[in-house]
Design brief:
Layout lengths: L1 H9 L1 E3 L1 H21 L3 H5 L10 H5 L15 H21 L3 H18 L6 H14 L9 H5 L5 E3 L1 H21 L3 H4 L3 H7 L9 H4 L4 H17 L1 H4 L3 H21 L5 H12 L2 H20 L1
Helix pairs in contact: 2-5, 2-7, 2-16, 5-6, 6-7, 9-13, 15-16
Amino acid sequence: MQDAWANFWFKPIDARQYAALRIAFGSLSAIYFVQLLPYVEAQFSGSGWLGDIQQIAIQNGGSWSLLFISTGIYATTFAYAVVILGIASAFLMMIGWQSRITVCITWLVWVSLWNRNPLLLDGDDAVLKMMCLYLMLSPCGNCWSVDAYVHKMPQHVAVWSLRLMQFQIALIYFVSGWVKFHSPEWLNGTIMQYVLIHPHYSRWDGWAIIDKPMMAGLLSGLAGFIRWWELLFPLLLLNTNTRKLSILIGIAFHVGLLLTMNLRWFAVIMLSLYIALMPNSCLFQGMKKRHVEVDSHHRN
């Protein structure tokens, strides 16, 4: 049992898995910060509609933010500086320059924005914030980075920080499924019809589909399947075969969201999480074989 425990938490894995996550979430964070620029003065600065109010943040479980620092007449300028700092740090995180420091700064900016005005932010922002925290604990700069180019760094690293990411992802799905079991619209299956005809969330006119006799039953069945799949997601990860099946279902599910719904970058963010769920050997086995073949060719 001791060996199994040590292997589960500390076995060596290819550092490229962490690098792929760093690049994905660094680039997504940079995009999100850029998209927030038009809202900085009104939504995040001390001169905006919230002023110096902190009660909203306290009620949402957090009360600390760089944006609570009193800067007087420079409140708007300071708020812009914080967001621009986030853009710069996210970009440097993506390219892997001083990786842990820039990931830490990116996480700090995310926390500051979230605690300053959680009313404007959503679940996709929470996922980006969460992943920056776990990447800060990981050796994400050991590969595909400026750090790795300048310094010789280990290419095989401990798996423990990846395990924390996997637990968090499993928890996200479980809680999402649990909430759906307490929603009347999910329980009776009508939620899928509502989504397809919603003028904001649907990418196309869903009336053409839901008017067909068989579609109501199919959509209701799909709602039930999604509900159970999310609730059982942590258990499905425990077995190799069910893990592969669950990952395939998840990829199909989020691709479906991407094609049918306007959810900003949510589907892309959730698909990026699957880098952490894929077996390390599956992700890089093909690349290792190609490297061996190239090395062999050069030697010959």
